[in-house]
Amino acid sequence: MEEFLERSTQFIEQSGWLAPLFFILLHVFRQIFFIPVLLVCLVGGYLFGTFYGSLYSMIGLTTVSLVFYGLIHLFPMMREKLGGLKKRFLKEQHRLTLPQMMIMRLIPFIHFHLVSLYLMETTRDLKSYVKKSFLVSIPPAIVYTAFGDMIHDLPLTGTIIFAIFMIILFLFFRKKRTNISWNDFFQPKNS
Protein backbone atom coordinates (compact mmCIF):
# COMPACT_ATOMS: atom_id res chain seq x y z
CA MET A 1 0.00 0.00 0.00
CA GLU A 2 2.75 2.47 0.96
CA GLU A 3 4.67 1.58 -2.19
CA PHE A 4 1.59 2.18 -4.36
CA LEU A 5 0.96 5.54 -2.68
CA GLU A 6 4.61 6.56 -3.12
CA ARG A 7 4.61 5.60 -6.82
CA SER A 8 1.29 7.40 -7.32
CA THR A 9 2.67 10.54 -5.69
CA GLN A 10 5.75 10.52 -7.96
CA PHE A 11 3.59 9.93 -11.02
CA ILE A 12 1.26 12.81 -10.12
CA GLU A 13 4.20 15.16 -9.44
CA GLN A 14 5.62 14.45 -12.90
CA SER A 15 2.28 14.77 -14.72
CA GLY A 16 2.23 18.56 -15.08
CA TRP A 17 -1.20 19.94 -15.93
CA LEU A 18 -2.74 16.45 -15.85
CA ALA A 19 -1.80 16.08 -12.18
CA PRO A 20 -5.21 17.17 -10.82
CA LEU A 21 -6.96 14.61 -13.02
CA PHE A 22 -4.64 11.83 -11.85
CA PHE A 23 -5.11 12.92 -8.25
CA ILE A 24 -8.90 12.74 -8.60
CA LEU A 25 -8.53 9.29 -10.16
CA LEU A 26 -6.33 8.30 -7.21
CA HIS A 27 -9.31 9.11 -4.99
CA VAL A 28 -11.50 6.84 -7.09
CA PHE A 29 -9.04 3.93 -7.13
CA ARG A 30 -7.84 4.28 -3.52
CA GLN A 31 -10.64 2.03 -2.31
CA ILE A 32 -9.37 -0.87 -4.42
CA PHE A 33 -6.01 -0.68 -2.66
CA PHE A 34 -7.55 0.00 0.80
CA ILE A 35 -5.85 3.40 1.09
CA PRO A 36 -7.58 5.61 3.67
CA VAL A 37 -9.09 8.93 2.61
CA LEU A 38 -6.84 10.63 5.14
CA LEU A 39 -3.66 9.60 3.31
CA VAL A 40 -4.91 10.63 -0.11
CA CYS A 41 -5.99 14.04 1.20
CA LEU A 42 -2.59 14.45 2.88
CA VAL A 43 -0.95 13.79 -0.47
CA GLY A 44 -3.24 16.41 -2.01
CA GLY A 45 -2.14 18.97 0.56
CA TYR A 46 1.50 18.11 -0.05
CA LEU A 47 1.26 18.28 -3.85
CA PHE A 48 -1.22 21.10 -4.44
CA GLY A 49 -1.39 23.11 -1.22
CA THR A 50 -4.38 23.54 1.04
CA PHE A 51 -6.76 25.32 -1.35
CA TYR A 52 -6.27 23.29 -4.52
CA GLY A 53 -5.66 20.05 -2.61
CA SER A 54 -8.98 20.53 -0.79
CA LEU A 55 -10.78 21.41 -4.01
CA TYR A 56 -9.44 18.36 -5.85
CA SER A 57 -10.21 16.15 -2.85
CA MET A 58 -13.81 17.41 -2.75
CA ILE A 59 -14.18 16.60 -6.44
CA GLY A 60 -12.50 13.21 -5.94
CA LEU A 61 -14.64 12.27 -2.92
CA THR A 62 -17.82 13.32 -4.74
CA THR A 63 -16.73 11.25 -7.74
CA VAL A 64 -16.19 8.25 -5.44
CA SER A 65 -19.72 8.72 -4.10
CA LEU A 66 -21.07 8.89 -7.65
CA VAL A 67 -19.23 5.69 -8.61
CA PHE A 68 -20.62 4.06 -5.45
CA TYR A 69 -24.14 5.12 -6.49
CA GLY A 70 -23.69 3.32 -9.80
CA LEU A 71 -22.08 0.21 -8.29
CA ILE A 72 -24.72 -0.20 -5.60
CA HIS A 73 -27.37 -0.41 -8.32
CA LEU A 74 -25.31 -2.91 -10.32
CA PHE A 75 -24.47 -5.14 -7.33
CA PRO A 76 -27.41 -5.42 -4.91
CA MET A 77 -25.41 -7.85 -2.74
CA MET A 78 -23.05 -5.00 -1.87
CA ARG A 79 -26.03 -2.96 -0.72
CA GLU A 80 -27.20 -5.78 1.54
CA LYS A 81 -23.79 -6.12 3.21
CA LEU A 82 -23.44 -2.38 3.78
CA GLY A 83 -27.08 -2.28 4.92
CA GLY A 84 -26.24 -4.81 7.65
CA LEU A 85 -23.30 -2.68 8.76
CA LYS A 86 -25.52 0.41 8.74
CA LYS A 87 -28.12 -1.33 10.91
CA ARG A 88 -25.50 -2.33 13.46
CA PHE A 89 -23.93 1.10 13.57
CA LEU A 90 -26.84 3.51 13.11
CA LYS A 91 -29.82 1.39 14.16
CA GLU A 92 -33.07 1.62 12.22
CA GLN A 93 -34.74 4.52 13.99
CA HIS A 94 -31.81 6.95 14.00
CA ARG A 95 -32.09 9.94 11.63
CA LEU A 96 -28.85 11.80 10.92
CA THR A 97 -28.60 15.48 10.10
CA LEU A 98 -26.29 16.87 7.43
CA PRO A 99 -23.79 18.22 10.02
CA GLN A 100 -23.68 14.78 11.68
CA MET A 101 -22.88 13.14 8.34
CA MET A 102 -20.14 15.72 7.77
CA ILE A 103 -18.63 14.81 11.13
CA MET A 104 -18.96 11.09 10.38
CA ARG A 105 -16.89 11.62 7.24
CA LEU A 106 -14.21 13.21 9.41
CA ILE A 107 -13.91 10.16 11.66
CA PRO A 108 -11.33 7.87 10.01
CA PHE A 109 -12.63 4.54 11.32
CA ILE A 110 -16.19 5.02 9.99
CA HIS A 111 -16.57 3.35 6.61
CA PHE A 112 -16.75 5.94 3.81
CA HIS A 113 -19.52 4.13 1.96
CA LEU A 114 -21.64 3.75 5.08
CA VAL A 115 -22.33 7.48 4.90
CA SER A 116 -22.82 7.23 1.13
CA LEU A 117 -25.42 4.49 1.60
CA TYR A 118 -27.24 6.56 4.21
CA LEU A 119 -27.21 9.56 1.86
CA MET A 120 -28.53 7.42 -0.95
CA GLU A 121 -31.40 6.12 1.19
CA THR A 122 -32.37 9.60 2.41
CA THR A 123 -32.31 11.45 -0.93
CA ARG A 124 -34.96 11.24 -3.58
CA ASP A 125 -32.85 11.35 -6.77
CA LEU A 126 -29.31 11.36 -8.15
CA LYS A 127 -29.08 15.17 -8.28
CA SER A 128 -29.85 15.62 -4.57
CA TYR A 129 -27.54 12.69 -3.72
CA VAL A 130 -24.62 14.29 -5.58
CA LYS A 131 -25.31 17.68 -3.97
CA LYS A 132 -25.37 16.21 -0.45
CA SER A 133 -22.34 14.03 -1.20
CA PHE A 134 -20.41 17.12 -2.22
CA LEU A 135 -21.45 18.99 0.94
CA VAL A 136 -20.54 16.01 3.14
CA SER A 137 -17.12 15.75 1.46
CA ILE A 138 -16.13 19.35 2.29
CA PRO A 139 -15.04 18.85 5.95
CA PRO A 140 -12.77 15.83 5.42
CA ALA A 141 -11.21 17.35 2.31
CA ILE A 142 -10.37 20.60 4.08
CA VAL A 143 -9.41 19.17 7.48
CA TYR A 144 -7.33 16.26 6.19
CA THR A 145 -5.61 18.42 3.59
CA ALA A 146 -4.87 21.41 5.82
CA PHE A 147 -4.42 19.77 9.20
CA GLY A 148 -3.67 16.21 8.20
CA ASP A 149 -0.06 16.30 9.31
CA MET A 150 -1.10 17.63 12.70
CA ILE A 151 -3.79 14.97 13.15
CA HIS A 152 -1.51 12.23 11.81
CA ASP A 153 1.39 13.16 14.10
CA LEU A 154 -0.63 13.64 17.28
CA PRO A 155 0.44 11.51 20.23
CA LEU A 156 -2.02 8.91 21.52
CA THR A 157 -3.49 11.29 24.12
CA GLY A 158 -4.03 13.96 21.46
CA THR A 159 -5.74 11.43 19.22
CA ILE A 160 -8.04 10.31 22.06
CA ILE A 161 -8.92 13.93 22.90
CA PHE A 162 -9.65 14.62 19.22
CA ALA A 163 -11.87 11.50 18.98
CA ILE A 164 -13.81 12.53 22.12
CA PHE A 165 -14.26 16.02 20.65
CA MET A 166 -15.63 14.51 17.42
CA ILE A 167 -18.08 12.32 19.36
CA ILE A 168 -19.31 15.34 21.37
CA LEU A 169 -19.82 17.29 18.12
CA PHE A 170 -21.66 14.30 16.63
CA LEU A 171 -24.03 14.16 19.62
CA PHE A 172 -24.50 17.93 19.68
CA PHE A 173 -25.81 18.00 16.07
CA ARG A 174 -28.27 15.14 16.44
CA LYS A 175 -31.98 15.69 16.02
CA LYS A 176 -33.54 16.56 19.32
CA ARG A 177 -36.88 14.85 18.69
CA THR A 178 -37.55 11.14 18.92
CA ASN A 179 -40.72 9.45 17.67
CA ILE A 180 -41.85 6.34 19.48
CA SER A 181 -44.66 4.32 18.00
CA TRP A 182 -47.56 3.17 20.16
CA ASN A 183 -46.55 -0.49 19.77
CA ASP A 184 -42.95 0.19 20.78
CA PHE A 185 -44.02 2.04 23.90
CA PHE A 186 -46.71 -0.40 24.99
CA GLN A 187 -45.25 -3.79 24.20
CA PRO A 188 -47.55 -6.76 24.88
CA LYS A 189 -46.56 -8.89 27.86
CA ASN A 190 -45.61 -12.45 27.07
CA SER A 191 -46.80 -14.91 29.67
Automatic annotation (TrEMBL):
Membrane-spanning parts: 21-48, 54-75, 96-119, 154-173
UniProt keyword list: Cell membrane, Membrane, Transmembrane, Transmembrane helix
Subcellular location: Cell membrane
Annotated ranges, domain VTT: 36-149
Database matches in Pfam families: VTT_dom (PF09335)
Record bears the keyword Protein transport: no
Membrane disposition: Multi-pass membrane protein
Assigned GO CC terms: plasma membrane
InterPro entries associated with the record: TMEM64 (IPR015414), VTT_dom (IPR032816)
Keyword Kinase: no
Main location (coarse class): membrane
Family: Belongs to the TVP38/TMEM64 family.
Protein name (record): TVP38/TMEM64 family membrane protein
Species in which this protein is naturally found: Halalkalibacter nanhaiisediminis
